[in-house]
Design brief:
Structural class: alpha/beta
Number of domains: 2
Low-confidence stretches: none
CATH topology of the largest domain: Aspartate Aminotransferase, domain 2
Distance between the termini: 51 Å
Strand order of the largest sheet: 2-8-7-6-5-3-4
Shape: globular
Order of helices and strands: HEHHEHEHEHEHEEEHHHEHEEEH
CATH superfamily of the largest domain: Type I PLP-dependent aspartate aminotransferase-like (Major domain)
Number of strands: 12
Helix content: 25-40%
Number of helices: 12
Radius of gyration: 21 Å
CATH architecture of the largest domain: 3-Layer(aba) Sandwich
Strand content: 5-15%
Mean pLDDT: 96
Length: about 375
């Protein structure tokens, strides 16, 4: 191998294996709050649609079936008041593959640009997608309430920017961005804005919002059913927005063979048509956020409620996030993520994903009792 060949870094969550072993030593095993992987069941009607669609026989359209694209458009129109049509939407195999692949496809379109802008504390795939495409990954500073600070972007980076990623509600810190201002910034600078909105239905501070409320020109919104419908294993999502951009991206993806499975699209149509199961899930996550805040308070950690999402983002009292993660594993059997996974600016924090049921969170408190905490 060449000395300058790309060597993939360790996958962040694999670095938690020693702490996982420590947490597993507790009777009842680890309470894994490190990854935002749902534990609650998917709606029965969506699972039935997955099993009985008959769509497994033929190749599905890469862009998504018309009924899927119509269903996705109708869902977002109901949620935030947009006026999308099926032609404004394209299907994805979940959302992570799109996030990681977007810089590569955009650079094919604009080889004169080489920079991906993204929030300084954020989902690791924004930066990794840039790296995998041979691009510069340039973090954008955040405000005290964990929204993106557009005023800090260097003009020289703007001139080289392929795109700007935003994530609202944000992972890991739960911030909400002014999406109208973000859209205006992108249009004024000729930089496509990619808005990751997979936590949109877990907005706690006010109603949910999409960047598409501010028009489609120069913007793309990315959505997923992994969180709202507990369909992370099915890999169902979509992107919508600027007609020229989504057409270009979908044509490239078609040549590469990106095709969401037909049965998955059928399940997604069923799930997007129903809101009752999402409301039930919202209540579960809100209750778990409150319960886990109390657990963290017992070890001297103040965890404010996020403005959106189902993560608690808490500063380690002494700034040692790995030390706090080890203490939680040792005393409560709880596995959490050190904030450095989401960028150097988050290194003094931990992220706690409240994806385990209430009895598991109660078990963490019982373990602290037994340890005299």
């Amino acid at each position: 191998m060449s000395s300058d060949a790309f060597v993939p870094p360790p996958y962040p969550y694999e670095r938690l294996d020693p702490l996982k072993d420590l947490a597993m030593s507790h009777s009842g095993g680890v309470i894994d709050l490190s990854i935002g992987s749902p534990c609650d069941p998917a709606p029965d009607f969506a699972v039935a649609a997955l099993a009985n669609s008959g769509a497994e026989v033929t190749y599905p359209p890469s862009i998504g079936t018309e009924v899927f694209r119509y269903g996705a458009a109708a869902w977002l129109n109901r949620l935030v008041g947009t006026n999308l049509e099926a032609d404004d939407v394209r299907a994805t195999i979940g959302s992570k593959e799109l996030v990681a692949g977007m810089p590569h496809w955009l650079r094919l379109r604009r080889p004169d640009r080489d920079t991906v802008l993204y929030p300084a504390v954020s989902y690791p795939s924004y930066a990794m997608g840039a790296t995998l495409a041979g691009c510069r990954a340039v973090p954008v500073s955040m405000t005290e309430d964990w929204s993106i600070d557009l005023d800090t972007i260097d003009p020289s980076d703007t001139d080289r920017a392929l795109c700007l990623w935003v994530n609202s509600p944000g992972n890991p810190a739960g911030g909400l961005d002014d999406l109208g201002a973000v859209a205006r910034w992108g249009r004024s600078h000729g930089v496509p804005v990619l808005s990751d909105e997979c936590y949109i239905e877990f907005t706690w501070d006010g109603p949910p919002h999409s960047i598409l409320e501010h028009g489609l020109d120069g913007v793309i919104a990315v959505h997923s059913l992994s969180k709202r419908s507990n369909l992370a294993g099915a890999r169902a999502g979509f992107y919508a927005g600027d007609g020229e951009l989504i057409h270009y991206i979908s044509e490239v993806r078609k040549h590469a063979g990106f095709m969401p499975p037909g049965p998955v699209q059928s399940a997604a149509v069923a799930a997007l048509a129903d809101q009752a199961h999402v409301e039930s899930q919202r209540l579960r996550y809100r209750d778990r956020l409150e319960a886990m805040r109390l657990v963290l308070a017992r070890v001297g950690v103040e965890a404010p409620l996020p403005r959106g999402g189902f993560y608690l983002w808490a500063q380690a009292p002494d700034g040692n996030s790995w030390g706090l993660a080890e203490r939680l594993a040792r005393q409560a059997g709880v596995l959490v993520s050190p904030g450095e996974f989401y960028g150097p600016a988050g290194a003094q924090h931990i992220r706690v994903a409240v994806v385990q049921p209430a009895d598991k969170i109660a078990l963490a408190s019982e373990r602290l009792d037994r340890n005299g905490v």
